[in-house]
Every structure is written in structure tokens, then in C-alpha cells.
Amino acid sequence: MLVSALITGIAAVHYYYMRDYYLATGENPTVLRYIDWTLTVPLMCVEFYLLTKAAGASKSLLWKLILASVWMLVAGYIGEAFGNGRAGFIALWGFLSTLGYLYVLYTAWFGEVAQLAAKSGNPSVVSGIKALAWFVLVGWAIYPIGYMCVEGGWLNTGLGMTSNSVDLFYNIADAINKIGFGLVVYNIAVTSSAKA
Ligand SMILES: *C/C=C(C)/C=C/C=C(C)/C=C/C1=C(C)CCCC1(C)C
Question: Which among 101, 165, 168, 169 is the best mutation to test ligand 1's pocket, defined by most ligand atoms within 8 Å of the CB?
Fold first, then answer.
């Protein structure tokens, strides 16, 4: 619960900064956005680790998840900040970023996290990890949609989406995922403590 509070708290502070930045410049707050994600997404990996720790999750699992998610964000930042409308560059870094995403997605659905959840023998951990895995599959997939709206991105050139849509998608996705993760973790905490 503490980690969930940190995630939403850190995001809240960054949203105030992002609002000020947007009002002052009229530009997308890309740097602030990625600073926020670089703190909050690894904390989501910490949640996966803590929830499966009793079933034997190792530190190396935690580091693999953190590394994959930071790779995803660094590659995405490079594509977004230095793309300058170049379609090939943006697609390449978007692809490289997606590799990190797929690693987290795989681990949550079929890999170590899923296996440890099954091993835990705790039904609220099993269903909670499944719910988080759904968030990673559906909620996290909104971000690449936003990314593809940047100038030179596939949805920008293909469907005429503007770079304003980037922030719209990112804002919606942040609300869904950060609050969603928090509610799932809260539910696990409440149902597990009721049984204990
Ligand atoms: C609270 C913030 C969260 C959960 C942020 C998640 C961000 C992503 C899942 C971003 C993914 C990206 C790709 C998979 C490819 C294109 C570049 C990114 C960084 C937007």
C-alpha cells in the first residue's frame, strides 16, 4: 500500500509541474513525463516483487523487471525527444522500447511472476496478479498509441493525429494504470488480511 501511495503521490507532484510547463510553453512536457515514469514504473515492478516475495520471488527477478522497464522508457524517450519528425527513427526506437514492454508483459502473464503467484497458494494474490497482468496488457498498451501520435509517428502521418493527442493518451493511461494498480493492491491487502 505504501508503494501504491508513493506511485500516485509522485505522479500527482509531476502533474502539477507538467500543467505549469504546458501553460507556460504550450509544449508537451516530455522530459517531466519521462522523469515521472522512470520513478513510478520501476515502483510498479516493486509491487510485482513484493506481492510474490512470500512465494519466493528473488531480487534478480526485481532487477530484471526494473531493467526491462527502464530500457522501455529510455528507448521511448530517445524516440520521442530526438525523433524530430523522422518516421524511421521514431519507429526504430518505438520497436526497441516495445521489447522491454514485452518482457514485463511476458513475465506477468507466463513468466516468473505468474508462476510465483500460482505457487503462493493465496487466491487473492493469484487473482490480484492476474488483474495487474491485465493492466499491463491493456492499460500499458495505451502508451504506444500516444507515442505513435508524435510528429512522424504512424498515427500522426497515417490518421492525422496531432501531437496534442500524445498527452491525451498518456494522461488517460496514467490515470487508469496508477489508480488501477493501487486498487488491485488495496484489494489484495484487504482480502488477505481478512483471512489472516
Ligand atoms: C505510470 C506510468 C506508466 C505505467 C507508464 C508506462 C509506459 C509505457 C508502458 C510506455 C511504453 C512505450 C512503448 C511500449 C513503445 C513506445 C514508447 C513508450 C515509452 C510510450
Answer: 101
